[in-house]
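Troubleshooting: if your tokenizer reports a length mismatch, compare against these two reference records.
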Amino acid sequence: MKCLIPLLFLAACGAQPTPLMMGAQRLEATRNNRQYVVFKKENTVEIIRLGYARRGEHQAIRADMIALIPEVTGCKLTESALQGDSGEMRGRITC
């Protein structure tokens, strides 16, 4: 039972930014019944999908993530600098 308590605390933390994005502005969004967390810091952005995705959904999720970045941040995304997959992406933005 004692070993379950730390796991509960970890589960409650939710999405956390990478170390380079510590101190970033945290923004949340929902699209197509999926939740996303966006971290914005200077000219960089990180977006994280929350929840499970089934096989065949990843391409649409990635497109949603790309579309959400400028909507949520108000900045233009440099798609050529975008890295990641349907779970987590990082890229550059111009505000």
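Reference record two:
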Amino acid sequence: METVDIRQADVEDAEALTAVYRSAYQENRRLGFPAKAESVTPETVEEWIEADRVYVAEIEDELVGGVRLTKTDPERVKLSRLAVHEDWKGSGIGSGLVDHAESTVRTRGETTIWLTTPGEHPYLPGFYRSRGYEKTGNYPLEYRDYDEIVLEKQV
């Protein structure tokens, strides 16, 4: 596999990261789990970069993935918007981004990462469970035909 570099995003990454989100989240729509990220705008991604901790994965200067961390309590951080461009799925980039997020949270002295994901998704809950995340609750979505679950991990 080619070398993947992960770094904190800056606003100049917003357009390329938007393309990654649109590509990555099309699969969820095909699987019956549409998400807002599939139609996100560069302006919204720029807002995420300015407000939260957003990290990007690059291969030879091509932006191929991203993840967002949002502090929700003094020791809790929400992991969201994990995305890998369709052309790079299955190559370990998502795992690398989650590893980086967990390491960052640990280094900053925060203790818990939590996230939501569609409970009936064919592989996302299993992906997170295999990494030590445990279901701690349900996350009903009034505006979707599916609900999500809450998963947490102590880091």
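Descriptive notes for reference record two:
- The two ends are 27 Å apart (CA to CA).
- Helices lie at 14-30, 42-51, 93-107, 124-130.
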